[in-house]
Specification:
The protein is mainly α. The chain is built from 20 helices and four strands. It has one domain.
Length: 479
C-alpha cells in the first residue's frame, strides 16, 4: 500500500534522520571509549562515513536500475506466487523449527517461570503478577503443565510454537500493507537471526506478547486495506471496527506498547486520502472508544478475580510503567550484534525514502518504531517485559522496507511513461493543426456518373409494336 507524500511523511523522515545521526554518533562514542581515543572525532567520523557510504550505495543502485531496467527487475525476480509461495513458507518454517531443535541445549529462562508455574500440592500459581502479559503467560504455562506434566522442556516448545505462529501471522499482515518481498524478508530474519532464535528458546512472556501483537497487527492491517481500498458492506465494517477495538484493548492490557497500533489507525488516513477516508476516521474514533471500554472491562474482571479494585490496579500500573528517566543505556545493555545490524539497515531508509517520487511506505512504521524507542529509552517497560524483542521486530520491519525500497523504480518509470505519453499527444495535436495548400499540378477531369435514358418520350398512341396478320397469311411457308 503506497502512501502519498505530504507534511506528515516528511516529518517522519526528519525523525528517521535524527535517529540515524544519533545512533551513529552513539555507536561512535562506544567505539571510541573502547579504543581510548578522542570520542568526538570518532563519533563525527562514523556519522559522516555512514552517510557517505549509504548515499553512494543509493546512487550506485539508482544508476544501475535506470540503465539496466530492461534486463533485470530485482523485485520481479524474487516474487513468488501460488504453490511456490506456500512451498517457500512451509520449507522456511520447517527449517526454522529444525534450527531451534538443534539449539535446545542452549535453552534457558529470563526468570524462574518454571518454578512459579509448575503444578504443586498447594495448587495455583505461586505469585500473582501485576502485568497482564506476565499473568496470562503464567496461566498458560500452568495449564500446560497441568495437562502434560511438570516437564521443563514443554515450556520451551511453547516458546517455539508462539514464535513460529507470530512470525507467520505478522508476515501475512505485512503482505496486506507491503509487497511480498519485505514481508518474507522480515519472516526470514525472525526465523534465522541468532538473537531471535535465542529468544525463541528462552522462557519469557515476550514471545506470548509477540504472538498476540502479530495477530492484532494482522487484523488491523486487513482492516486498513479493506477500509481504504475497497467498498465493503457497511455493517460488516462496523463490526470489524469493534473487533479491532477489542483486540487492541486486549493488547494494551497485556503491555502498554499496544497503544502503538493507534499510529497505524491514525497516520494512514492522514496520508492516504480516498473517498472512504471520512467514514474511516469515524470508525477509528468508535474503535478507540471500544478499546477503552474493553480495557476497562478486562480491568474489572481482573479486579474481581484478584479481590482488588480498578483503582488499585491502575495505581500499580502507574508504578509499573512509570518513566525512570531517559537514556540510551537502557537499550545498549540489551543490544546484540544482529540487533545493531538491523538498526543500521533501518537507517538506510533516510535515503531510500526518496527512491519513489510521490509515494512512500515508511511513515506508519517509523512512528511505531520510534514510539517503541521512547518506551524503552524512558524506561516505560518492566523487568519481565523489557520490550527489547518487540523493538527488534519493529526495527526489522523498518529495515526490510528501507532495503527493498532501494531497488524500487516504479514511480520514476511511471513518470517517464506519463511524460512520453504527453509528448506523443502534443506531437499528434501539432500534426492535426497543419494546414495543407491546394495542389497546383493538373489533374484529370472529375468523373461524372452516366445513366441510360431515352432522348424523348413518345405518345401513348404511338406505342404499338405488335403486327397483326390474318390466319391465312403463310408467307413464311414455301410450297
Amino acid at each position: 500500500m503506497n502512501l502519498k507524500k505530504n507534511k506528515v511523511s516528511y516529518f517522519a523522515w526528519l525523525i528517521l534522520i535524527f535517529f540515524t545521526g544519533a545512533t551513529c554518533a552513539f555507536l561512535g562514542l562506544i567505539l571510541a571509549q573502547s579504543c581510548n581515543i578522542n570520542s568526538i572525532l570518532v563519533a563525527g567520523g562514523i556519522v559522516t562515513m555512514f552517510f557517505v557510504v549509504v548515499f553512494g550505495l543509493y546512487l550506485l543502485i539508482g544508476y544501475f536500475l535506470e540503465h539496466h531496467e530492461d534486463k533485470i527487475d530485482f523485485l520481479q525476480v524474487l516474487e513468488l506466487s501460488g504453490k511456490l509461495e506456500w512451498i517457500f513458507i512451509i520449507s522456511t518454517l520447517a527449517l526454522g523449527i529444525l534450527v531451534r531443535m538443534l539449539m535446545l541445549e542452549h535453552a534457558g529462562e529470563e526468570a524462574a517461570y518454571f518454578e512459579v508455574c509448575k503444578i504443586t500440592e498447594a495448587g495455583g500459581i505461586a505469585i500473582k503478577p501485576v502485568q497482564g502479559s506476565v499473568y496470562i503467560y503464567c496461566l498458560l504455562l500452568h495449564a500446560l503443565f497441568y495437562i502434560i506434566g511438570n516437564n521443563w522442556i514443554v515450556g520451551i516448545w511453547l516458546q517455539i510454537f508462539l514464535q513460529i505462529i507470530g512470525a507467520f501471522v505478522i508476515c501475512q499482515g505485512l503482505k496486506k500493507l507491503l509487497d511480498k518481498i519485505p514481508s518474507y524478508l522480515v519472516f526470514c530474519i525472525i526465523l534465522f537471526s541468532p538473537g531471535s532464535i535465542k529468544s525463541g528458546i528462552t522462557y519469557s512472556p515476550q514471545m506470548l506478547y509477540f504472538c498476540v501483537f502479530s495477530i492484532v497487527f494482522y487484523f488491523v492491517a486487513d482492516y486498513i486495506k479493506r477500509s481504504l481500498c475497497t467498498e465493503e458492506n457497511k455493517k460488516i465494517m462496523w463490526g470489524y471496527t469493534v473487533l479491532n477495538g477489542v483486540l487492541i484493548g486486549l493488547c494494551v492490557y497485556m503491555d502498554i506498547s499496544g497503544v502503538l497500533f493507534l499510529f497505524l489507525w491514525g497516520i494512514v488516513p492522514m496520508i492516504k486520502r480516498t473517498e472512504y477516508t471520512t467514514i474511516w476516521i469515524k470508525r477509528m474514533l468508535v474503535g478507540i472508544v471500544v478499546t477503552i471500554l474493553f480495557l476497562a472491562l478486562i480491568l474489572g474482571v481482573d479486579a474481581l478475580l484478584s479481590n482488588s479494585s480498578i483503582a488499585n490496579i491502575l495505581g500499580a500500573w502507574s508504578i509499573l510503567y512509570g518513566a525512570i528517566g531517559f537514556g540510551f543505556d537502557l537499550l545498549v545493555n540489551r543490544l546484540s550484534a544482529d540487533f545493531i545490524v538491523v538498526i543500521i539497515l533501518a537507517c538506510i531508509g533516510c535515503f531510500s525514502f526518496w527512491r519513489r517520487v510521490n509515494t512512500e511506505r515508511f511513515t506508519p512504521f517509523i512512528f511505531m518504531t520510534m514510539g517503541m524507542c521512547v518506551f524503552v529509552f524512558c524506561g516505560i517497560t518492566t523487568e519481565n517485559m523489557s520490550g527489547t524483542y518487540l523493538l527488534y521486530i519493529l526495527f526489522t520491519i523498518l529495515a526490510a522496507v528501507s532495503v527493498t525500497e532501494l531497488f524500487c523504480m516504479d514511480d520514476k518509470i511511471k513518470v517517464r511513461v506519463e511524460k512520453s505519453e504527453e509528448k506523443e499527444e502534443v506531437e499528434f495535436d501539432e500534426i492535426k493543426q497543419i494546414e495543407f495548400i491546394e495542389n497546383p499540378l493538373p489533374v484529370p477531369k472529375k468523373h461524372v456518373r452516366k445513366t441510360m435514358d431515352y432522348a424523348f418520350v413518345p405518345d401513348e398512341s404511338q406505342m404499338k409494336y405488335d403486327i397483326y396478320v390474318s390466319d391465312n397469311d403463310d408467307y413464311d411457308l414455301k410450297v
